[in-house]
Write a structure and sequence with these properties.
Length: about 180
């Protein structure tokens, strides 16, 4: 299994993201469920097809990561992650699955708010240094990469200003201090 802690690069810098057969099947089912109508398939402009496929694959993987988190006793990331339950059977496997799957989502479609969510997961599971690096990546992307028209829906209902404050606060936390407050969305 891929390990975030052993990676030489941040997971979103890995160019060739390989999905497991199970992940690929799940993402294909998810995309088909959104694109097939009674009249047949919905078509996407050819210049947008790759973007749409990557975006939908990332959304599917984030849903999968949330299921891993729930299995480990956490709440879904958009609800604030919370605290897991290490006494649960397979807790470590579920945490590793959530981290690996969310990293793949960020690599496939690197949306700034996804980096914030990933950083919150890393913080919640105790990967403090990795969380700080990911909060920094969120802030960098938020400041430098404009939100595209087709991405606006993914930001709806999100308090991005609060996410920026949380990430900034997390990066200014000194060793020994905690920046572990839960930020519900």
């Amino acid at each position: 299994m891929w390990s975030f802690r052993k990676a030489k690069k941040a997971p979103w810098e890995n160019e060739g993201v390989l999905l497991t057969e199970e992940e690929a099947r799940e993402c294909q089912r998810f995309i088909r469920s959104l694109t097939v109508t009674d009249a047949g398939s919905i078509t996407v402009r050819s210049d947008f097809a790759d973007t749409a496929n990557r975006l939908l694959t990332a959304v599917c993987l984030i849903g999968r990561a949330n299921r891993f988190l729930i299995s480990a006793g956490f709440v879904p990331v958009e609800l604030g992650v919370g605290r897991g339950d290490p006494s649960l059977t397979n807790y470590d496997d579920y945490v590793a699955g959530a981290v690996e799957t969310f990293a793949k989502a960020c690599a496939i479609y690197p949306l700034s708010i996804s980096f914030y969510d990933f950083a919150c997961i890393l913080r919640a599971v105790g990967y403090k240094e990795e969380a700080k690096a990911t909060f920094a990546e969120f802030l960098r992307r938020h400041a430098t990469i404009p939100i595209k028209a087709h991405e606006k829906l993914l930001f709806e209902g999100r308090d991005v200003a609060r996410a920026v404050r949380d990430a900034t606060n997390e990066l200014s936390t000194k060793p020994g201090e905690t920046g572990d407050e839960e930020i519900p969305f």
